[in-house]
Protein ILRUN (Tursiops truncatus), 210 residues
Amino acid sequence: MEGMDVDLDPELMQKFSCLGTTDKDVLISEFQRLLGFQLNPAGCAFFLDMTNWNLQAAIGAYYDFESPNISVPSMSFVEDVTIGEGESIPPDTQFIKTWRIQNSGAEAWPPGVCLKYVGGDQFGHVNMVMVRSLEPQEIADVSVQMCSPSRAGMYQGQWRMCTATGLYYGDVIWVILSVEVGGLLGVTQQLSSFETEFNTQPHRKESPLP
């Protein structure tokens, strides 16, 4: 498994062990962040509870527990298909966010994987979408129905792939929104779909000119 032999920075660990916090939610979120969202909150709570909520001991227990022969799926973010960084969106507007992702590993993904909201702004009620199992090196588009916040400003949220057993994997993928009155969402979504239709389909046959 990637990262099994990585030495955790002792200064970083000392910093977190000195937090002295007894707030379990804070410890869970810190543990999850230190593991790069590799584990869901319930899994984090399991290891923390096992070590009397000692963050440093819990991380050690996690790495001791994780067997090196566990094959973790791989996922790489390729590009934003709709709503690229810097595009403006009007407040309270429904939109579809689409990312292009790739199985960058040597094995097919297990069945039952999904893309989950993991942090930041959520943009609506959807916090998970199922994703089909991709073959090695296969690329696919994943879309989530979202709604922009009611106030103008910059917003961002993070999403991540997750197995049916709760193991997070691959790149953290972002939604970065600029909410402005008079934003050009309608136009940009139409342009994006037009470009996707005509520019990203190399297998499309164009009829030869006479």
Notes: Confidence is low (pLDDT under 50) at residues 1-6, 198-207. The first strand starts at residue 76 and ends at 80.
